[in-house]
Each structure stands twice: as structure tokens, then as C-alpha cells.
């Protein structure tokens, strides 16, 4: 019985030591097995790595060289005087509007100019200017634009507050020309847009002046036909003076209305300038009413019938129209020139800080990076294939697994 009791005690003492040792041995053996597998198949790993390095080297020297040219521009500075004046007129609402503009994503004023630089209008102009459809061998303009967008960047999010334009091309000289031409195409686009307050006034008066010029030309042509039809009439000096006074007042009223409309595009009705122009407009209308005329036409103007013969009324009307549109054109032309001067004071739309120069070094392909990536891919594929082969060999040594693999091969052969 003593022997029977001693045996279980010995087993009980030995079991913990035996149970504690296998995990450490298994971990050590698994790590050694992995290193042994990689060492036994080092030739395979070296071959795959060398093959990938060869492909990377071939790719690095086959890819064409590309050069990047960069131009830096300064966008127009924001004119806070007009915005501050308008905000002060709005009172507390102006403060709320200024806070709202900061919280609605308009944190960087360069975002608008970056979007204009990257607009389809500018891109299409560049494509047509440099013949990029033939260069990229594209049939459609939309596909050419997508290809072109891969080779340029417009960045205005830097801390320096400048806009950087980078263009990549196979020819370094052409890359610099494209970067500088980009600024020219943007300036052409900005000339048709009213970005600043002075630009808005300039564009508004430019349209009004074109219309006034057409009206004056039509009135002069009508007067010419009337002269040929009725002959030139020598009017009485009093009647002529009365007509010219009424015409001048009408022209001044029309010009003030145009000026008021132009100011209302960027100012409220409570603006001091708008109030002053409205007061002057009311005074001119009162003077015209004293002469018996109206804004819509001078047909109601009081002219003694004895002063203007009945046969010359048609000529008087045509002459009156010419004087009216001539005065309108002169007043609007002065307003247009003043708007152009104000716009010139604000400076150019964009100022070139650093024009694009011909790059002397290529920007791609980066051969060192390509070789490092090829080396990493080769090592990874080599180790992976070595482990896979080791696993297959180990599976073949197991009778049950080997039988399953044989069955799988037969099944695949039958299906094939």
C-alpha cells in the first residue's frame, strides 16, 4: 500500500514541471523553424528580390523624365474700408454678418482665386493654347482636361498667403512657359468678372457707355436722314436755348439714375453717397418740371409755336435727341473713367512674385525611391513564397493531408 501511495505523489510532483516546459520549447522551436525555413530557401528569396530590383531598375530608366516649374503670385488684398462702412451702417446685424462669414467656410480668401485658377475656362484655354489634345492623344476635351489635371497643382493654403502654381511636363522650357501662361489666362478671365467694388462699377458703367454710344449713333443717323429730307433749319436762339437746357437736364437725370443704380450694386439705400445722389436727382427733376418737360421725353416742353416753325418740328426733335444722347454719353464716359482709375488704384488682379523659371533638375521619376520600393516588394514576395513552399512540403509529409491534396489535384484535373 505504501508503494501505491508513493507513485501518485511522484506523478503529482513531476506533472507541473512537465506541463510548464512545452510552451517555451514550442515557441523556441517555431522561431527556429521559421529561420531555418528562410535559410534553406535563401536562394529563392535572393532570386525573387533580384528580379524585383531588376524590374524596378528597368522601370526607373524607362519612365520619361518630367520637370516641374512653379510660379508664385500674390492675390489682391481685401479692401476692408468698404466692408467696414457697410457693416457700420448695419449695426449689430453687420457684426453678426461678419461673424457668419468666418464660420461658413470662408476662412481663407485665397480659396476663391484658387478656384478661378482651376476653373474649366482657364484649363480649356491652356489646352487650346498648347495643343494638349494632340500631346495627350485624347479625342475629347473632357478627357484631356482630366489628364491635364494630373500634371498641375494650384495651392493657396500656405501660411505665406501666396498662391503657388506648379506645372509638370516632359520639356523643362515648356513647363515654365505653361506656368507663366496660366497667369495670363487667369488675367483674361478676371477682366470679364467684377471681383472688387471698383471692378463692379467699371463693368457696370462700361455696359451703360456701350448702350449710350449705340443710342447716340442711332440719333445721329436719324438726324442726318431728317436733314436730307427737310433741310437744315435755323432755329430761334430762345427756342434753341430752351431745348438745350431741357435736354441737358434730362441727360443729367439719366446719368444720375445710372450712377445710383451702380452704387446700389454694392451699397445700401442708407449709404451717405446713395442719399446724396438721390437728393441731387430729386433737384434735377424739380428743375425739369419748371421747364414743363418730363423724364420720358421732351414732347411736353413749352416752346412757343411762333418760335419754331411747324415744318421744322421734326428736325427739332431729332436734334434734341442727338443733344440728349450726346450729353448722356459724356457723363457716363466720365463715370467710366473714374471707375477705371479706382480699379487701377487697387492694383492688378494678381501680382507675380516669382515667375516660373526653366527647371534645371527633373522632378520625376525618383529612381532611388523606385529601387527602395522594388527591394521591399522583392523581399516580401520572396519570404512569402518561401513560407508557402515550406507549408506545402510539410503538408505533403502528413499522410492524411497528402491524401487530401492528391484528391484535390485529381478533382481539378477532372474539372479541367
Can you describe what's shown?
By secondary structure, this protein is mainly α. Among the domains are: 67-196, 2-Layer Sandwich (Bacterial polysaccharide co-polymerase-like); 197-345, no CATH class. It is built from 15 helices and four strands. A four-stranded antiparallel beta sheet has the order 2-3-1-4. Strand 2 (152-155) and strand 3 (163-169) form a beta hairpin. Helix 6 packs across helix 9 (172-191).
Biggest sheet overview = 4 strands, antiparallel
Distance between the termini: 70 Å
The portion of residues assigned to helices is: over 70%
Strand residue content: 5-15%
**Helical stretch count?**
15
**Broad shape:** rod-shaped
- Residue stretches low in confidence (pLDDT < 50, at least 5 long) are 1-29, 80-106, 297-308
Query: Kindly state the mean pLDDT as a whole number?
Result: 75
Q: Which structural class best describes the helix and strand composition?
A: mainly alpha
Total beta strand runs: 4
Strand order of the largest sheet: 2-3-1-4
Helix-strand sequence: HHEHHHHHHEEHHHHHEHH
Amino acid at each position: 500500500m505504501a508503494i501505491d501511495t508513493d507513485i501518485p505523489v511522484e506523478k503529482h510532483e513531476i506533472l507541473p514541471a512537465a506541463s510548464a516546459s512545452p510552451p517555451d520549447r514550442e515557441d523556441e522551436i517555431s522561431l527556429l523553424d521559421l529561420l531555418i525555413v528562410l535559410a534553406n530557401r535563401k536562394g529563392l528569396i535572393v532570386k525573387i528580390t533580384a528580379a524585383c530590383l531588376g524590374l524596378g531598375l528597368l522601370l526607373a530608366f524607362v519612365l520619361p523624365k518630367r520637370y516641374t516649374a512653379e510660379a508664385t503670385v500674390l492675390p489682391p488684398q481685401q479692401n476692408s474700408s468698404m466692408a467696414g462702412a457697410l457693416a457700420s451702417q448695419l449695426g449689430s446685424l453687420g457684426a453678426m454678418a461678419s461673424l457668419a462669414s468666418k464660420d461658413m467656410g470662408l476662412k481663407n480668401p485665397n480659396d476663391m482665386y484658387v478656384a478661378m485658377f482651376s476653373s474649366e475656362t482657364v484649363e480649356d484655354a491652356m489646352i487650346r493654347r498648347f495643343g494638349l489634345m494632340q500631346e495627350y492623344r485624347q479625342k475629347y476635351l473632357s478627357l484631356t482636361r482630366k489628364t491635364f489635371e494630373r500634371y498641375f497643382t494650384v495651392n493657396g493654403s500656405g501660411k505665406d498667403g501666396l498662391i503657388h502654381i506648379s506645372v509638370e511636363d516632359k520639356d523643362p522650357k515648356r513647363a515654365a512657359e505653361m506656368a507663366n501662361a496660366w497667369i495670363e489666362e487667369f488675367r483674361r478671365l478676371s477682366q470679364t468678372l467684377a471681383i472688387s467694388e471698383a471692378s463692379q462699377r467699371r463693368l457696370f458703367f462700361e455696359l451703360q457707355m456701350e448702350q449710350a454710344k449705340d443710342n447716340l449713333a442711332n440719333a445721329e443717323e436719324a438726324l442726318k436722314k431728317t436733314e436730307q429730307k427737310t433741310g437744315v433749319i435755323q432755329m430761334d436762339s430762345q427756342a434753341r436755348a430752351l431745348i438745350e437746357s431741357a435736354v441737358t437736364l434730362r441727360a443729367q437725370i439719366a446719368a444720375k439714375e445710372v450712377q445710383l443704380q451702380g452704387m446700389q450694386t454694392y451699397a445700401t439705400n442708407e449709404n451717405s453717397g446713395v442719399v446724396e445722389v438721390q437728393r441731387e436727382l430729386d433737384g434735377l427733376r424739380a428743375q425739369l418740371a419748371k421747364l414743363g418737360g418730363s423724364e420720358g421725353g421732351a414732347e411736353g416742353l413749352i416752346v412757343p409755336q411762333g418760335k419754331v416753325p411747324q415744318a421744322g418740328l421734326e428736325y427739332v426733335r431729332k436734334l434734341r435727341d442727338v443733344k440728349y444722347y450726346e450729353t448722356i454719353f459724356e457723363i457716363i464716359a466720365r463715370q467710366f473713367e473714374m471707375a477705371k482709375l479706382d480699379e487701377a488704384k487697387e492694383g492688378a488682379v494678381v501680382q507675380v512674385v516669382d515667375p516660373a523659371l526653366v527647371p534645371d533638375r527633373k522632378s520625376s521619376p525618383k529612381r532611388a525611391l523606385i529601387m527602395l520600393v522594388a527591394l521591399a516588394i522583392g523581399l516580401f514576395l520572396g519570404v512569402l513564397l518561401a513560407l508557402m513552399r515550406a507549408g506545402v512540403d510539410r503538408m505533403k509529409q502528413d499522410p492524411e493531408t497528402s491524401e487530401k491534396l492528391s484528391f484535390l489535384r485529381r478533382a481539378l484535373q477532372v474539372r479541367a
